[in-house]
Amino acid sequence: xxxxxxxxxxxxxxxxxxxxxxxxxxxxxxxAAGWGLSSEEARVAAVYAASPExxxxxxxxxxxxLVDGALGALASFAPLTFALYRxxxxxxxxxxxxxxxxVGWVDDGPFHYRACARYLDHLAGHLPERGGPGxxxxxxxxxxxxxxxxxxxxxxxxxxxAPAERAxxxxxxxxxxxxxxxxxxxxxxxxxxxPWLRDPAAMLVxxxxxxxxxxLVYLPTSQEEHRLAGVGGTAKQVLDLLExxxxxxxxxxxxxxxxxxxxxxxxxxxxxxxxRRA
Amino acid sequence: xxxxxQLGVGLQYNPDVLHWFPFEEQQVDVLEVLLDTLxxxxxxxxxxxxxxxxxxxxxxxxxALVAHSNYGGEFGFxxxxxxxxxxxxxxxARLMESPWVSDHCFYAxxxxxxxxxxxxxxxxxxxxxxxxxxxxLQELYGMPLGHENAxxxxxxxxGEMGEAxxxxxxxxxSGTWLHLDLHNVYTNSINHPGYSADAFLRTxxxxxxxxxxxxxxxxxxxxxxxxxxxxVPEPVWEMLERVLEVARPGAVxxxxxxxxxxxxxxxxxxxxxxxxxxSDLKRxxxxxxxxxxxxxxxxxREQGHGR
Lengths: 278, 307
Prior knowledge:
The complex is a heterodimer.
Chain A: H1 3-15, H2 17-23, H3 28-31, H4 39-49, H5 52-77, H6 79-88, H7 92-102, H8 112-124, H9 127-131, H10 135-151, E1 177-180, E2 184-189, H11 194-198, E3 213-218, E4 227-231, H12 233-241, E5 246-247, H13 248-255, H14 259-272, E6 275-277
Antiparallel strand pairs in A: 1-5, 1-6, 2-3, 3-4
Chain B: E1 8-13, E2 30-34, H1 35-38, H2 52-60, E3 64-68, H3 84-95, E4 101-104, H4 124-141, E5 145-148, H5 163-174, E6 177-181, H6 182-191, H7 197-203, E7 209-214, E8 218-220, E9 223-225, H8 234-244, E10 251-254, H9 270-292, H10 298-304
Parallel strand pairs in B: 1-2, 1-10, 2-3, 3-4, 4-5, 5-6, 6-7, 7-10
Antiparallel strand pairs in B: 8-9
Helix pairs in contact in B: 4-5, 5-7, 8-9
């Protein structure tokens, strides 16, 4: 029996509850073609069927671990959403089992951000409705944070601005051109999340102001954890514009306000490493 | 590749039980660190998870550290260079300055949770394929690589030989080593008719064993499970005594963990299990000392030199 073919059949048995159930019913071989199994694959499946209890335990423990893994990805990389989930969902393990059933028991392995993103997408479909104001914002913030990490997975070392290049004297800024590094992203929420971000225990307890907030999520270096900074509307506008390089003067013409304010904003964003001099 | 240094007896540093087990109060020679608990996601820019650099520094100040890879995914069918083993574990094992590294004989495909349910096919073709990958991976690690034998509920179809013969042929073909999990052998001998622990130990090349795992398990619904949730059973101690007569491993490591595989696992606690674990540790140390002499263990050597 070809080992790779055997592995592919086994993976189907692990991930397709219907097929795994059918496997252990009498006469499975006659119905195997209906499951898209070739005769060789059906022979492999029949070997597993001949050890029903061992096969059942192998599949059951896989699914138990995957439930743990899905919840673990959420807990590690979307901790605020995880905390909300535990408050809003009476049985997170059972809910996760239903979710994994819906997505075909896919195992993302070491791609934890992908696993987290997938689960966040799923939760975005119903958790905000159950949780009320602010819940959708939390999911948005953490989804965009996870997306930022994923976008930087293969980023070259040159993406991160060296510390020496971040502290630019203010006097030099008006002569410079700037560009975004891609190491930060602004998330605009519908509610002001500050009370919940400062104290996650306040989530669902402290009401939030229904006022938009711009939160800059950024990675200071490739090996550090992300940070959050509240930024004003002008800073957001500057970052949006610097998807393409702009000179100081061109920025000033677009965002308005005074050159002093723009200098402060650019200095701040340079120190965070989300901009570089182009 | 040279043989491994003799470190002694230690514990697997398992984050599952960190909330109650006082690892850093234990008098052990070595801690086995799970590389998967150090590594940052493969789809992100970091190599190491936040806080882990500091953890390693703190642990290394007190203990010898050895690297253990659960989820390297190295024996699947995709390119070896794309696996977590190559993209993360190699760098982390080197960062730890581990004297050796051990991995598992399972299939994976950029996946984690299926591995424990997916033993390799014990066939001649797989000996050749797996040996080539093992040899290359050991080169990349730059240190001895030992393969842990599996506990499995159902063997992979298409096997042409027993597990022990497969492992013996594997390490001969690849030049790699063995990480002998005695509780896995014991578990398989209970669950699989015809699987003999005695025959297993007579078949594998014991001189190629560089680490030994000890653990306990549980019965549930007609199967015995390698759940690391109880004391080491007597037959496993007997196997250890027998193996140590021939093998000269770098370490004997005791494993225990939380509820990792099934809801029926017994959950360990400080109140019920701290003494049990320490008692198993002492017994392992006593067996080691009887075989190799007390000064063969790292802590005893260092105390003897007044450190």
